[in-house]
Amino acid sequence: MGFKTFPPPGSPPGILQHPAGRLTFPSRLRLICYDGDTLEETMDATLGDLEGRRERPGVKWLHLMGLRDLTLLQDLGAYLGLHPLALEDVVEGRALVKVDDFTDYLFIVSRLVTDPGAYRDEQISLFLGRDYLFSIQESHDDYFGIIRERLQHGSGQIRSQGADYLAYALIDYLVDSWFPLLENFGEKLEELEDRLLSEPDSHLTQELQSLRRKMLRVRRLLWPVREVINNLLDQDSPLIRAHTRIYLRDCYDHVFQVIDLLENFRDMAGGLIEVYLSSLNNRLNQIMKVLAVIATIFIPLNFMASLYGMNFKTDVSPWNMPELSWYFGYPYALGLMATVAAGLVLFFKRKKWL
Question: Domain boundary residue among 255, 278, 301?
Answer without folding.
Answer: 278
